[in-house]
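Progress note, sequence design subtask.
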C-alpha cells in the first residue's frame, strides 16, 4: 500500500553490510526511468555503484547528516552497500530538479517495498564524483542515493517547533510539521 509505505518509510543512514542483488538495484533504476518528466524530456541517467573499491572512493565525497558522526561520514561498519548516482545532460531545462525529486522518491519507495533503506543525498562533492566515475563532460552529477539493508529503525514525531532530526539513545528521531501547520484551504 503506497499510503502506508509513505507513512512508514524513513531515511536510513546506518546499513547492514549484506550486499544488494544487482538485479534489485537495476529494478530500482527501471522504476526511476519510468518516472514523470517535464515535457517528457527524460534528461536523467543513473550510475549504480556496488563495487567495494569504487564505493570506497565515493564515500569521502558524500555527507551524511550531522547526527551520524562528527565528520559527517558514513559510520564505519554501517556504510551503504550501493549508491545510485543521478546525472543529467548539460543544457537540460531547469525542471530537471523536479525530475530528480520524483525519480529519487520512486527509487526510495520501491526500495522500501523490497526491504532496502535509502538516504537521498544532495550534500555531495559533485565534481569529484564526476571525475571518480568517469562521467563525460557533457553530463553533470547532481544527486546520490545511498542504499542498503537498514540497520536502524528511525521514529517519527510531530513538532510545533522548527523541525529537524536527532539521535537519542542510538535511535534516530525525525520531526515533521503538523498537518494543521502546512495545510490551507481556499486561502492562506
Ligand atoms: C533533496 C534532499 C537532499 C538530502 N540530502 C541529504 C544529505 O546530503 N545527507 C543526508 O544525510 N541526508 C540528506 N537528505 C535526507 C533528509 O535529511 C531527510 O529526508 C530528512 O531528515 C527527513 O527524514 P525522512 O526522510 O526520514 O522523512 C536529503 C533529503 C532530500 C529530500
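Output:
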Amino acid at each position: 500500500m503506497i499510503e502506508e509505505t509513505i507513512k512508514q518509510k524513513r531515511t536510513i543512514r546506518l546499513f547492514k553490510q549484506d550486499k544488494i542483488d544487482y538485479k534489485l538495484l537495476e529494478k530500482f533504476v527501471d522504476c526511476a526511468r519510468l518516472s514523470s518528466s517535464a515535457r517528457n524530456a527524460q534528461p536523467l541517467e543513473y550510475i549504480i555503484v556496488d563495487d567495494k573499491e569504487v564505493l570506497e572512493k565515493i564515500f569521502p565525497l558524500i555527507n551524511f547528516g550531522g547526527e551520524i558522526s562528527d565528520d559527517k561520514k558514513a559510520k564505519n561498519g554501517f556504510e551503504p552497500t550501493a549508491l545510485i548516482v543521478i546525472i543529467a545532460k548539460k543544457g537540460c531545462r531547469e525542471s530537471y530538479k523536479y525530475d530528480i525529486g520524483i525519480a529519487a522518491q520512486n527509487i526510495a519507495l520501491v526500495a522500501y517495498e523490497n526491504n532496502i533503506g535509502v538516504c537521498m543525498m544532495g550534500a555531495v562533492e559533485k565534481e569529484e564524483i564526476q571525475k571518480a566515475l568517469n562521467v563525460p563532460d557533457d553530463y553533470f552529477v547532481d544527486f546520490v542515493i545511498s542504499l542498503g539493508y537498514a540497520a536502524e529503525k528511525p521514529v517519527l514525531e510531530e513538532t510545533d517547533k522548527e523541525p529537524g532530526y536527532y539521535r537519542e539513545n542510538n535511535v534516530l528521531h525525525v520531526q515533521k510539521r503538523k498537518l494543521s501547520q502546512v495545510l490551507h484551504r481556499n486561502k492562506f
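The radius of gyration is 17 Å. Work on this subtask will continue into the next period as scheduled.
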